[in-house]
Amino acid sequence: MAILGSIIKGVIDIKDSFTSEPNHIENQENVLKQLLETAKDTQFGKYYLFEGILNADNISEAFARQVPYFDYNSINDAWWSKLHKGETNVTWPGSPSYFALSSGTTGKTSKRIPVTDEMISAIRDAGIKQVFALSNFDLPADFFEKEMMMLGSSTDLDEKESHKEGEISGISASNIPSWFKSYYKPGEDIAQIDDWDERVEAIVKRAKEWDIGALSGIPSWIELMLQEVIKHHNLNNIHEIWPNLQVYTSGGVAFGPYEKSFNALMGKPITVIDTYLASEGYIATQVRPETDAMQLNTDNGIYFEFVPFKPEYINEDGSLTQDAPALTLRDVELDQDYVLIISTVSGAWRYLIGDTIEFTDVKRAEIKITGRTKFFLNTVGSQLSVNKMDTAIRELEEEFDIKIPEYTICAKRGEDDEFYHFWYLGTDAENTDNKALSEALDTSLKNANKNYKVARTKALHGVKVNTVPPSKFHDWNGKNKKKGGQVKMERVMGEDKFAEWEAFVS
């Protein structure tokens, strides 16, 4: 009898029974007021007249009129760069305790995103919310006695004069509550190893000592770690060494593209729970098993706005035009892609996080990640978003009975000076028929996207497919950025980056 597990499960169930469904619209109105009130005397708050916004009849409308959209480059150049010169009270009171380093999916140079103590607290509270939501997933009591493998970036943060720097997953892991440390694996010593391959090697060697009940991390890097454990211990699947593994919390990217390859490493089905932790904050988490959508954390230090994802509102570099309309949670609709805009307790204001989402349930504030603004492929009018590409890849997997966990695409002219979409698919399948894959991919996209279908009758001449092992994508990330952590593969490349990619592959 799992006595401790029964007690923990009982506490979670009791907490859930006394928790009513939140009013997400009211939560957001309160969060915006708190953000503005707290930051009104900062340099940013004075410049954009937060005091006046707080006195407006409609605060959200006044806020949208008064404060422009920012992406990382614009807010860093105008404001956050002051923090590195020793200035305080810039976009948030005081100085941040951490900076999250993020190269994301777009380049070698790390962004340095402020992470305040208030944000650390907000992330911790969102994590507790996720734990309490486990009561909805009908897990057995003994699950709550098992260990949890959190595979993020190194917790060995760089010490600077007045702050520490590292990736957000490393920052979060270095701030886990003391009561959780006995459950946390791979443990503090291994988590501090900076080199990804060395860290995985240490995990592999000690894997038999642990009784892992849950995994957490970005799918591509979790898969690599599991493959190494399976290979080293000569297993058929990961459940032969961790028989009590029951839950995987994904994060950072949509899980769909990895589902088939991930399940191939399992010996039995497990519960997959999606989460959305970005360098800028803990955005959302899945709270119920009836859907794989995630609920926005509407009461936890982040104010959300939503810009309809349409070509006329997106600049060539993926930023927003300043006349793009922003909607609040009160105004959004189903079946519409939105660019996600956030204002946070770390001093990000009307900040373009770079992701696009759609609502699956407006009342519950539940969303799915649909792509990246910079991965919107509109060359010659094709208007392809990442979710359309992901769906086409899933159809290829089913039709050809192969696994394709990674891919990238570029629109450019071929040798005949006509425009093509050049795809590289990551698969270990042997003897693939690239011509057949090209034709099937083209057909799938025509059926899913009328704009793509029209483009194919005009300037877009066709599709060309090459297949390479998935390891090529992991090695590319290791060469250009850093393995593990929050690093994700760029799904759409410009011509210059794609030329580097093709040279690397060959």
TrEMBL record:
Span of domain GH3 middle: 298-364
The species this protein was found in: Winogradskyella maritima
InterPro entries assigned to the protein according to its UniProt record, in alphabetical order: GH3, GH3_C, GH3_M
Residue span(s) of domain GH3 C-terminal: 389-494
Domain of life: Bacteria
Name of the protein this chain belongs to: GH3 auxin-responsive promoter family protein
